[in-house]
Amino acid sequence: MPRASLDKRPAEIAAMFDEVAARYDRTNDVLSLGLDRRWRREVVKALDVRRGQRVLDLAAGTGSSGEPFADAGVQTVPCDFSLGMLKVGKRRRGDLGFVAGDATRLPFEDDAFDAVTISFGLRNVADVPAALAEMRRVTVPGGRLLVCEFSHPVWAPWRAFYAGVWLRVVPAMARAVSSSPDSYVYLAESIQAWPDQRALARLVADAGWTGVEVRNLTGGIVALHRAVNG
Ligand SMILES: C[S@@+](CC[C@H](N)C(=O)[O-])C[C@H]1O[C@@H](n2cnc3c(N)ncnc32)[C@H](O)[C@@H]1O
């Protein structure tokens, strides 16, 4: 069973997602207790793009993060480097124009999008500053960035429960529903090793994005980082 290490070597990460692709969406629903659907609605509200605008959904996986935009009439381009995830995505949502591409070397021209979003993807990218810079390159001046990612609960007892109990339970639950339970050990480890809200805001600003705003969802289990290009 492939299980990426925290070095996040691109080939290992892509292989791990290829392996989980078949049951990815179902596993997500189970492990998040259905909260993923609420988080996705908040992403659409926070990015606030209009019908007809063009949005890049990076690290799009099977398309679940991009489809609420497409359903709202936004021109959505889902891009990912796991061919397994893209294959499942094409079967699920053949109407979305999936593109294969690496977040650190995007196959798009400068200023190609009105906005860019990445949900539960940035944590898996080996070179986060390079990905944030690439996202800025392909976004028009004044366009928005929305990063939706697991983060660190802000209230200490909630944080203690989440890290001490929930993240230990997740790999056990994954054993029942996922096609690759070991990948969910990586999930729990990578969440704990990921920068907190403030540190990620700094990384976003260091890549040249401005006006960085942070909003916690579910007490900080997930954080939305929003910023503007310019
Ligand atoms: C947890 S999934 C998230 C999928 C989707 N955005 C969602 O919200 O369900 C993470 C995705 O990031 C993709 N990914 C990781 N590193 C990447 C990179 N450097 N370039 C493109 N995609 C990447 C993986 O292939 C995987 O499909």
* Main sheet specs: 7 strands, mixed
Low-confidence stretches: none
Shape: globular
The neighbouring-strand order within the major sheet is 3-2-1-4-5-7-6
Detailed description of the structure:
With 230 residues, this protein is an alpha/beta fold. The chain is built from nine helices and seven strands. It has helices at 10-20, 24-31, 35-47, 67-71, 83-92, 128-137, 156-177, 183-193, 197-206; strands at residues 54-58, 75-80, 99-100, 113-119, 139-150, 209-217, 222-229. Strands 3-2-1-4-5-7-6 form a seven-stranded mixed sheet, sandwiched between helices. The longest helix has 22 residues, at 156-177. It is globular. The relative contact order is 0.17. The model has no long low-confidence stretch (mean pLDDT 95). Residues 10, 13-14, 17, 59-61, 64-65, 80-82, 85, 102-104, 119-121, 124-125 line the site of S-adenosylmethionine.
List its traits.
230 residues, alpha/beta, 7-stranded mixed beta sheet, 7 strands, 21% strand, binds S-adenosylmethionine
In short:
By secondary structure, this protein is an alpha/beta fold.
Layout: helices, strands, pairs:
Elements: H1 10-20, H2 24-31, H3 35-47, E1 54-58, H4 67-71, E2 75-80, H5 83-92, E3 99-100, E4 113-119, H6 128-137, E5 139-150, H7 156-177, H8 183-193, H9 197-206, E6 209-217, E7 222-229
Parallel strand pairs: 1-2, 1-4, 2-3, 4-5
Antiparallel strand pairs: 5-7, 6-7
Bound molecules: S-adenosylmethionine.
